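Predicting holo structure, TAP bound.
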Amino acid sequence: MPETDGGELLEVLEPATAAVLDAVPRAGVDDVDAAVERARAAYPAWRALSPSDRAAVLRAVSDAVREHREELARLEARNAGKPIGDARGEMDMVAQVFGYYAGAPERLLGDSIPVSGGQAWTVREPLGVVGLIVPWNFPLTIAAWKLGPALAAGNTVVLKPAELTPLSAVRFAEIAREAGLPEGVLNVVVGPGSTCGQRLVAHPDVAKIAFTGSTEVGRSIAAGAAQTIKRVTLELGGKSPNIIFADADLAAAAAAAPGAVFGNAGQDCCARSRILVQASALDAFMSALEGAVRAIRVGDPLDASTEMGPLISASHRASVASFVDDVAPVAFRGTAPDGPGFWFAPTVLCPVDPRARAAREEIFGPVAVVIPFDDEQEAVRLANDTIYGLSGSIWSGDGGRALRVARALEAGVLSINSNTSVRVSTPFGGFKQSGYGRELGPNALDAYTEVKSIFFSTGSAG
Ligand code: TAP
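Done. Tokens:
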């Protein structure tokens, strides 16, 4: 059960049916304070654990996630409405993240720096209690990206999942505890961002907030954290470009484009939701894309053949639908089930004016805009014409051009002739208003440690 004594119950819905899936106690501010206190009490012992012992615990957590893969995947598929195949892949990634960061406690290296009169070197210290605030789109995966490096570095944690999708975090905490994570090292509080999230941000004993979610809330977290000079990392929204040059393998680009924007029903901060296509290839690309979009299987998340599930909530569906009004230039749409559940058919708008709302705002749903361009310069200008800078793709048969464009794009995670953004061993994070700080890879440890410099005087020979 989550960390709360509160009496109020939070009903958790299943997006595919709109029915109640479960009910969990809803935490309040007092529960956050109690969780921070437990994390504070557990910190000295967790920090003092030998690096190899801390590594062994993280390895055991990784193994336990693998053992519980199917249970966790089904929970995530039902609560977040994502296809079971995707959910299984996400649980594999969660296990990989803990396995990867199990290597970190024994590799938190410092520098030895030449100075006069003695020896200087640096060590990495944990921060203390860190607050993790995560969204509903990849609930346990995004939590793991933060938990792995935070725990490896010797911090203790209070994790606040989104109220819409708390179930996998609650179950994961039990599994991790059974696998040997000491009491109090990971504390889950299930409650609203407006109370529990804000309290974590304001709490004087929380050293850092790692947040993934909307740019709007990220802004308020950065402002709130300034009061106590908390460390903050922010992984926020995106409006990522998928740039397709006429010299690309158009069939491959068109076959891959739907997955890059309609995966997780478009509820993905890395969604390549702006498809920029060189005008001379537009017709050929659009006809290949149409077949791929109409073929997407949208349906029951627990059916192994499903490729796209529902949206997360009724209100989010209304927000997505507002981008496909009567005057939207709908080129073609896929299908979606009727009846209960928050369904929305994959939709492609073309041609879209780059100044249009659908081309500028993060839709966070299965709606792609296609924008034609004439040359490389225009492609780069259009791609960078956004407040965001998270990810993007470049498809071209000209390697020099692909690299030139990759260097010119203002974004943190790019792929060439591929739409993948995320690997456990490579850094992930945004430029501009997509946030700051990096998750995953070796860089994530920087965000959960302070560098300490120590000078040892050697005196002078007598
Ligand atoms: P947010 O409101 O940003 O929620 C993300 C997390 O922050 C949730 O755990 C939320 O808690 C918490 N939160 C909300 N207000 C807070 C506050 N004032 N202080 C501290 N924590 C707070 O995102 P959302 O409502 O779920 O989605 C809105 C839009 O955000 C989406 O349409 C999409 O554009 C964007 N979004 C981006 C991402 C990524 S991966 N970058 C993920 C999700 C959403 P509760 O939800 O429990 O109240």
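The chain has a mean pLDDT of 97.
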